[in-house]
């Protein structure tokens, strides 16, 4: 796996200054720079894809550490075009943040940034540029895979909401889990993935982690819950019912 360097508060002034200088040379104008909260709903990408390993790391750090280094955008009317920070903006949008802190570059009156089609941040595709070897980071990446999978099936964007879910409210969606998978987990470090349907949470990824927390005597687990803009009848709910799965105790642990 390649080494991924994320933007930090320490190198932020250098990054912003480099972008400003480049644009001022190209357009032969002086830009104004403001640090402010901008709406993610009016923020659009200027790149075509996101890098899988970098995205997984940004996702992990955002959820665990509230990684919030400001992005850099250029303002055009009511719109903002991302110049630096596509991964940060994408993850914040997926986590249902409404705004993000940004260094906003503004052109003087009469001069504007080049014309760019407005595309939703959600349209950015994730490109496999590196194989993730770290097991923890790979599990974070798998959460994003689940999101992609459901977006492809239902042809709509999905978002994620972090919740602390009671184990008694979990419904498994697979009948068997290997014992080695469970005992190999010393401590659950990555949230499971669920959908919330009715009063229950159906596990999409994380059966072994859920069972491990039960073995450890814990009563709940951190979960990333898939959220859609409209109500959906998930096929996985009927699949679980057809298999007679209603609670964690219904999962058979295989030796």
Describe the 3D structure.
With 255 residues, this protein is an alpha/beta fold. It folds into two domains: 12-126, Conserved hypothetical protein from pyrococcus furiosus pfu- 392566-001, ParB domain (Alpha-Beta Complex), CATH 3.90.1530; 134-254, Conserved hypothetical protein from pyrococcus furiosus pfu- 392566-001, ParB domain, CATH 3.90.1530. 32% of the residues lie in helices and 29% in strands. It is built from seven helices and 14 strands. It has helices at residues 12-27, 52-65, 86-94, 135-154, 179-183, 207-215, 235-242, and strands at residues 32-39, 43-44, 49-51, 71-76, 79-84, 99-106, 125-127, 158-166, 170-171, 176-178, 192-197, 200-205, 220-228, 252-254. The strands form four sheets. It has a five-stranded mixed beta sheet. A five-stranded mixed beta sheet has the order 8-13-11-12-9. A hairpin with a 2-residue loop joins strand 11 (192-197) and strand 12. Helix 2 (52-65) packs across helix 3 (86-94).
The helix content is 25-40%
Order of helices and strands: HEEEHEEHEEHEEEHEEHEHE
Summing up helix and strand content along with how strands pair, one would put the structural category as alpha/beta
Number of strands: 14
End-to-end distance: 33 Å
Lateral arrangement of strands in the main beta sheet: 1-6-4-5-2
Looking at the structure, what is the overall shape? elongated
Percent of residues in beta strands?
25-35%
Number of structural units classed as domains: 2
